[in-house]
């Protein structure tokens, strides 16, 4: 069976890194694009370990340096190249559109640990807190092409699709935000492949 | 930068990595072979991380990668 990493526009020419489970990474041309994958024994279960996740990311990261990438969710496998070719044939237009949309862009991740109080807030202060959280990251929106946020367990997580040229400016904006709100725990990581901007549920 | 600062940055990046790899990316219907139990295992480690990240980040987080 094969494990899927990503679809690319440019043909990859060899890989510096190994894939999930230490297997070599290969590419298969289809409809003018390229499916990046590795071969594994039937019944292979992608391990849920940090090393395996970083291995997936290492491959995708190397591709991202060269050009636009549409990454698969971790753990995506198919019975073989024939099944993958059939699937990709059906979905070629979708991948073509995504690649065009993502050219020259990367994803940046911002995480804010929200202040927690022990007592349950009344409705009014709950709403006020929510509004404040929403406004907090507003300065970053103008630097991004698109954004997605979610909020759980006291952590606000945001993803931004940013032009490659804007990454430094975005990082500066995050630092300014941190300086303005010293009590807040703010983190920014990236550039990532646009994982948060390719899933159908967007 | 100290060794522990580097490790912390990698921990922070790992939380973001897990978010992206397990919740994002193109989904091929019916072919995600990860067992739910496995994902839960990853997330158990993650909650521990999130609680430790806050204090470490006050020093300011440059883009680590």
Provide a quick synopsis of the model.
Helix content of chain A is 35%, strand content 28%.
Helix content of chain A: 25-40%
Oligomer: heterodimer
Strand content of chain B: under 5%
Distance between the termini of chain A: 29 Å
**E-strand count of chain B:** 0
Please mark out the parts of chain B with pLDDT under 50 across 5 or more consecutive residues, or reply none.
1-6, 51-65
Number of helices of chain B: 2
Structural class call of chain A reads alpha+beta
Distance between the termini of chain B: 14 Å
What's the SSE blueprint?
The complex is a heterodimer of chains A (202) and B (65).
Chain A: E1 2-8, E2 26-30, E3 33-39, H1 50-66, E4 69-71, E5 77-78, H2 81-102, E6 105-113, H3 123-136, H4 138-141, E7 146-152, E8 155-163, H5 167-180, E9 185-192
Antiparallel strand pairs in A: 1-3, 1-4, 1-5, 2-3, 6-8, 6-9, 7-8
Chain B: H1 3-23, H2 36-57
Helix pairs in contact in B: 1-2
Structure description:
The complex is a heterodimer of chains A (202) and B (65). Chain A is an alpha+beta fold and 202 residues long. Helix content of chain A is 35%, strand content 28%. In chain A, the strands form 2 sheets. In chain A, strands 1, 2, 3, 4 and 5 form a 5-stranded antiparallel β-sheet that branches. The mean pLDDT of chain A is 88. In chain B, helix 1 packs antiparallel against helix 2 (36-57). The longest helix of chain B is centred in the C-terminal third of the chain and has 22 residues, at 36-57. The two termini of chain B are 14 Å apart. Residues 1-6 and 51-65 of chain B have low confidence and may be disordered. At the A-B interface, helix 1, strand 5, strand 6, strand 8 and helix 5 of A face helix 1 and helix 2 of B.
Structural descriptors:
heterodimer, A: 202 residues, alpha+beta, 5-stranded antiparallel beta sheet, 4-stranded antiparallel beta sheet, 5 helices, 9 strands, elongated, B: 65 residues, mainly alpha, 2 helices, 0% strand, disordered N terminus
């Amino acid at each position: 069976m094969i494990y899927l990493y990503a679809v690319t526009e440019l043909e990859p020419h060899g890989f510096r890194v190994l894939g999930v489970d230490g297997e070599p990474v290969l590419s298969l041309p289809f409809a003018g694009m390229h499916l990046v994958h590795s071969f594994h024994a039937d019944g292979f279960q992608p391990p849920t370990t940090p090393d395996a996740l970083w291995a997936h990311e290492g491959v995708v990261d190397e591709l991202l340096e060269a050009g636009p990438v549409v990454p698969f969710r971790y753990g995506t496998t198919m019975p073989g190249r024939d099944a993958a070719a059939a699937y990709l044939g059906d979905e070629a237009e979708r991948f073509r559109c995504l690649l065009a949309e993502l050219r020259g862009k990367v994803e940046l991740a911002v995480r804010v640990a929200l202040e927690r109080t022990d007592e349950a807030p009344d409705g009014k202060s709950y709403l006020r807190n929510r509004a404040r959280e929403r406004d907090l990251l507003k300065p970053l929106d103008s630097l991004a092409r698109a954004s997605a946020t979610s909020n759980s367990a006291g952590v606000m997580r945001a993803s931004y699709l940013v032009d490659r040229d804007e990454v430094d400016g975005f990082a500066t904006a995050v630092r300014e935000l941190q300086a303005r709100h010293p009590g807040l725990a703010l983190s920014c990581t990236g550039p990532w492949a646009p994982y948060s901007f390719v899933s159908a549920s967007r | 930068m100290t060794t522990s600062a580097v490790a912390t940055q990698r921990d922070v990046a790992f939380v973001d990595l897990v978010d992206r790899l397990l919740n994002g990316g193109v989904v091929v219907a019916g072919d995600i072979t990860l067992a739910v139990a496995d994902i839960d295992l990853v997330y158990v480690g993650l909650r521990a991380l999130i609680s430790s990240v806050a204090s470490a980040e006050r020093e300011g987080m440059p883009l680590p990668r």
